[in-house]
User: Which sequence fits this backbone?
């Protein structure tokens, strides 16, 4: 209607109006009309191209965005910002970092928005070395550590498993808002530093900063990972009583996880029954994980089937239920579940692991051999397995594919993506260097056991971030206390 009025009053040929028409249609998800409006601009200015570029990225048309970007004769800081921020915000983290490198090569100064988004990409990929470069850049340019940049740095270091650096940045921040405190508290929780997270929350309260609903997610996670049931229940109640914050489904999910981790499954079920809103898949998933860890197969089967009803296309739900069946020797049920997956066209998401080394992010897929160092990686992997065997390791093949013999199953779990990334890290780093790996799925029990033992064998610290939390492996022990 507004577009029609612009035409009626003769304003539709103004470049500023045409630019915002492009922006408006793209924001509404109609890239066809956005492109039509863009093509109708007789004299495009920089803003016109940036609007179209942002529109392509917003609508997921990445190749169109890349083509338009590459066709530009000149690109200023705003154009680079639109491209990098658009990619990162659409979860194209590796591409975002690639464009950031190109931006620096062309001697274009990044603005605060670009730096924050680059740090966000580093956080998601576990690319700490590149995140550290951003910190050095800030110092070299004498750029003030604003709340936004400081919080992004804290978040990046915590999501790379480097708690000490996060503390250092947090202490240097002259101004801290609730987002900064929340990032620190939540990050400590998922790194297994629950008691420290609760101490920081108390400090936050003493300094008069009011927590928000996200802060309490971090606090409840801290109680959960530290096994502090009574404290968790107390904090859950204080949300409403002290701060007037009504618990949402995430908080109830944390409460279910809190009880479930400690084996109090009856109480966890009671929470679900009394929730004022309908429990979602995350809530049922928290209970399901507790059943898996504590070996409660009957309840686990009921909850697993419930999750498959809720998320029939989520391969992870089938795999976890299959693992429960396998652990109890119910191979016919495993086979039936695989048949249902095939019938519904559900395929298992391939495991992939990322490792950041010397400013580059390397990705490994289970069993792949495309890396230039593949030969050396598999030689190292063979050495790792021999040392593990001598230390008493026996491959856990319960989660391997059905229909292959035991020897093949052992080979299958030996080639999981995190083991390949670990071998690559051992080859390419000096003895004693901490190796950090980010995985897209939950770490399997076999890789968890193997990595614990390898941390002692090689006298290294391994930090592995999986889909749910961090695992800090040192001296044959994991920070998660074998509950994840």
Assistant:
């Amino acid at each position: 209607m507004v577009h029609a009025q612009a035409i009626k009053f003769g304003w539709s040929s103004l470049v500023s109006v045409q630019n915002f028409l492009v922006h408006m249609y793209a924001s509404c998800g109609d890239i066809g009309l956005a492109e039509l409006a863009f093509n109708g601009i007789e004299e495009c200015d920089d803003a016109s191209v940036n609007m179209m570029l942002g529109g392509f990225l917003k609508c997921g048309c990445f190749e169109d965005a890349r083509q338009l970007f590459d066709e530009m004769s000149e690109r200023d800081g705003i154009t680079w910002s639109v491209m990098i921020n658009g990619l990162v915000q659409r979860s194209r983290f590796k591409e975002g970092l690639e464009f950031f490198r190109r931006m620096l090569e062309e001697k274009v100064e990044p603005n605060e928005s670009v730096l924050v988004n680059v740090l966000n990409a580093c956080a998601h990929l576990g690319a700490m070395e590149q995140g550290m470069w951003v910190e050095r850049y800030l110092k070299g340019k004498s750029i003030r550590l604003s709340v936004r940049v400081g919080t992004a740095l804290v978040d990046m270091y915590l999501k790379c498993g480097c708690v000490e650096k996060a503390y250092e940045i947090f202490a240097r921040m002259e101004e801290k808002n609730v987002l900064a405190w929340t990032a620190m508290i939540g990050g400590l929780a998922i790194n297994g530093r629950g008691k420290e997270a609760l101490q920081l929350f108390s400090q936050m309260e003493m300094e008069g900063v009011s927590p928000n609903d996200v802060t309490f997610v971090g606090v409840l996670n801290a109680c959960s990972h530290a096994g502090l049931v009574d404290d968790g229940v107390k904090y859950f109640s204080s949300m409403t009583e002290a701060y007037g914050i009504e618990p949402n489904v995430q908080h109830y999910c944390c409460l279910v996880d809190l009880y479930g981790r400690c084996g109090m499954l009856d109480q966890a079920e009671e929470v679900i029954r009394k929730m004022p809103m309908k429990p979602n898949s995350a809530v049922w998933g928290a209970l399901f994980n507790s059943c898996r860890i504590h070996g409660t197969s009957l309840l686990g089967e009921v909850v697993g089937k419930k999750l498959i009803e809720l998320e029939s296309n989520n391969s992870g739900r089938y795999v976890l239920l299959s693992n429960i069946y396998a652990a109890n020797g119910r191979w016919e049920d495993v086979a039936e579940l695989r048949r249902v997956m095939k019938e519904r066209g559900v395929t298992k998401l391939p495991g992939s692991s990322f490792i950041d080394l010397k400013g580059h992010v390397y990705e490994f897929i289970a069993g792949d051999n495309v890396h230039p160092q593949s030969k050396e990686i598999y030689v190292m992997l063979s050495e790792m397995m021999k040392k593990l065997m001598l230390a008493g390791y026996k491959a856990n093949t319960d989660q391997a594919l059905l229909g292959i013999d035991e020897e093949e199953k052992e080979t299958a779990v030996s080639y999981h993506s995190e083991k390949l990334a670990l071998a690559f890290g051992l080859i390419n780093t000096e003895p004693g260097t901490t190796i950090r790996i980010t995985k897209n799925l939950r770490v399997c029990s076999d890789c968890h056991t193997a990595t614990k033992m390898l941390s002692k064998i090689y006298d290294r610290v391994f930090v592995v971030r999986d889909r749910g939390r961090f695992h800090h492996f040192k001296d044959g022990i994991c920070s998660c206390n074998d509950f994840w």
